Amino acid sequence: MKRLLLGLIVVLSVLALGFVGNVARTSASLVQQIPKESKEQPKKVKLDTDSLDDKWGEVAFDHENHTIKNYTPDGKTTGTCIECHHTDQPKDKLTLPLVTSERTVALTADVLKDAAAAPVKGCRSCHLQAGDDSKPLPVITKDAKQLKLDNEVAYHTNCFACHDAAIKARPDLATKTAGSDPKGCVKCHVAK
Ligand code: HEC
Ligand code: HEC
Ligand code: HEC
Ligand code: HEC
Question: Stretch 131-155: mean pLDDT, rounded?
């Protein structure tokens, strides 16, 4: 009887573990993985799920918040798509160090409704992760030096510039997110 009970407990725990595993898998598959390019705007995504860093893992990014809500530094307006998707605007609108243009009109949600519109390339399709040598990294000249823009440099530069300005304008935001603050990593990255 005791053995039977023990056996039953083992079977039940295996089933329970399987169930928990399934739930974990299901919620993981609900998180969008980002294709190289797409015309579909992501909603809530996890960036850097493949982070190579020992300490800092994935970053949650709410694309919907950043496009629909008043996420400019002063909190009074919605930003523009090209603030982040900098290559998706006409060449004559670019200011240095930006020179690369891949769209003749500035990207908006409406631009993508046109069946003929080209898809939006994810940042990673140009700003490759360290160690990926499949093509040359974008380079700019900064403080008279050549700066290679891998994924870490590119995303950090983009995210930090706006977050620093927003926290400067509204110091209470520092409880919610971070910019270049060296102690702010954990506000974006999951610690490994
Ligand atoms: C089609 C390739 C491409 C895509 C897609 C792309 N970039 Fe870039 N990025 C570049 C190139 C090339 C440069 C160097 C400047 C130039 O040529 O315009 C650059 C420069 C930058 C810079 C430096 C600008 C500065 O003022 O210091 C940042 C930051 C940046 N990209 C962030 C991003 C982010 C964030 C995304 C995605 C939302 C992205 N990039 C998507 C190619 C790309
Ligand atoms: C705060 C920065 C930011 C703003 C503003 C922004 N995006 Fe994005 N967008 C991103 C990031 C980051 C990704 C994820 C791609 C990646 O990491 O490579 C993305 C992905 C996308 C994708 C999918 C690309 C792919 O590779 O699957 C589309 C489409 C897109 N954005 C359209 C837009 C449009 C349209 C707007 C304006 C209404 C906009 N975005 C505003 C940062 C931004
Ligand atoms: C144009 C400005 C701007 C850019 C660029 C930007 N953010 Fe934000 N972000 C904000 C503002 C403003 C808030 C705080 C909004 C609030 O709580 O009122 C915020 C909040 C956040 C939060 C807290 C959760 C949330 O969605 O409110 C995270 C996480 C975040 N940003 C990640 C990122 C990442 C990652 C990038 C770069 C890919 C990025 N942001 C680029 C303006 C920006
Ligand atoms: C505003 C949010 C934000 C903050 C704050 C932030 N990061 Fe990041 N970090 C990102 C994003 C977004 C990426 C690139 C995502 C991608 O490539 O998909 C990234 C990439 C990285 C990478 C590259 C990982 C890899 O192998 O792809 C490292 C390392 C890193 N961050 C370290 C840090 C450290 C250390 C801090 C604190 C000093 C920090 N980050 C603060 C958003 C942030």
Answer: 96
